[in-house]
Amino acid sequence: MVVGKSFQRKFWGLLVCCFMPGPSAAQNTATANPLPPAHTDAQEASARLSFVRSFSSADDVRGPLHPVLDRTLDIIAGPKNSAPQVDALKSASAVATDSGNRVLIADPSAKVVHLFDFVNSKYGLLDRGNDRLGTPVSLAVDGQDNLYVVDERSRTILVYDSAGKFRRSLGRLSGGESYFESPAGIAIDTATGRIYVCDTHRHMIIAMDDRGRLIAKAGKRGGGDRPGEFKLPRQVVWGGNELFVLDVGNARIQILDSVLHFRRAINLAYADHRTGLAIDGQGNIYVSDPVLNRIQVLNPEGRTLYLFDPSTLKDANFGRPSAMWVSSGSCLYVVDSQNDRIGLFQIVDRNAPKCR
């Protein structure tokens, strides 16, 4: 059955529907424009994207370091210990950046968060020498460069300051229990500090303030397919004063306001737990498909702009794109889950800063 669906999607294309809010979703359905031929997609992708570089280990970022810089790394990542050395990606599940252009990568198999600092040619591990990080699966950065790490093992969110010092955990209740059942994707509105978390197996989206106090929640236990209901929500992104939720079980993206009121939805042909979601500075939506090895790009209304296979872009050679992140509105980071690395793509915009 899986092969059949993949066959149909590959040869019949994608149908994307945009649901506008109203009395009922069925009364407000718009069908996406037909997808262009494959060769046109490749031309469109080449015109809109360029490959910058890929990286996967400390060797890709750092050269010989001065002892002072080595000490700086210890401050950022924690003191050295006798644990086995980890300096390469094993199974990246999320990527994020801060205002200093450091690239932060959650690696649940290695049980670490990698820090790549290309500006200063430095590499490190978050919270090295401590056992707080169990299984980091998702990341977000707030307006003060505090890093929020969703830890699957403890079912909490671990908060670190910009220097990598642990500050607090969110979601932990008295007795060591967690408020979350299975937290996954996380997003932060940097203007307000509000935190949005997908609690996947509760089929809910949780909104909190920066101290972890509940503001709102959407969805219901057992899941549902009505507007504002979810089945296995996995990814969440804040962009353009709206919250974009990858509703995996319903194969759609739901768009909510800041207090989780439903606005509209975009139907997808396919989604699973590996599908990535990102929003660029123009409000365009990026949805990765690791099965068909491609990324679909939609406009803010949900109409398909183009598809691209990242392996076809010059020098890229990518496979199975999954998690994504857009930095500075035009720098697209993509997890290459086939080759255990990260790729950086420049979204072409004459007013955008150059990705590096």
Description:
By secondary structure, the chain is mostly beta strands. The chain has one domain: Neuraminidase. Helices cover 9% and strands 39% of the residues. The chain has 3 helices and 26 strands. It has helices spanning 2-12, 38-48, 67-77, and strands spanning 17-19, 29-31, 49-55, 94-97, 103-107, 112-117, 122-125, 136-141, 147-151, 156-160, 166-170, 183-189, 194-199, 204-208, 214-219, 233-239, 242-247, 252-256, 262-267, 277-279, 285-289, 294-298, 304-308, 321-327, 331-336, 341-347. The strands form 6 sheets. The protein has a 6-stranded antiparallel sheet with strand order 2-1-19-18-17-16, with no helix packed on it. A hairpin with a 4-residue loop joins strand 17 (242-247) and strand 18. It is globular, with a radius of gyration of 20 Å. The termini are far apart. Residues 1-39 and 65-75 have low confidence and may be disordered.
Task: Please provide a brief summary of the model.
The chain contains three helices and 26 strands. With 356 residues, it is mostly beta strands.
List the helices and strands and how they pair.
Layout lengths: L1 H11 L4 E3 L9 E3 L6 H11 E7 L11 H11 L16 E4 L5 E5 L4 E6 L4 E4 L10 E6 L5 E5 L4 E5 L5 E5 L12 E7 L4 E6 L4 E5 L5 E6 L13 E7 L2 E6 L4 E5 L5 E6 L9 E3 L5 E5 L4 E5 L5 E5 L12 E7 L3 E6 L4 E7 L9
Antiparallel strand pairs: 1-2, 1-19, 3-26, 4-5, 5-6, 6-7, 8-9, 9-10, 10-11, 12-13, 13-14, 14-15, 16-17, 17-18, 18-19, 20-21, 21-22, 22-23, 24-25, 25-26
Number of helical segments with 4 or more residues:
3
Q: What helical percentage do the residues reach? A: under 10%
What integer is the average pLDDT?
84
DSSP strand count: 26
The major pleated sheet works out as: 6 strands, antiparallel
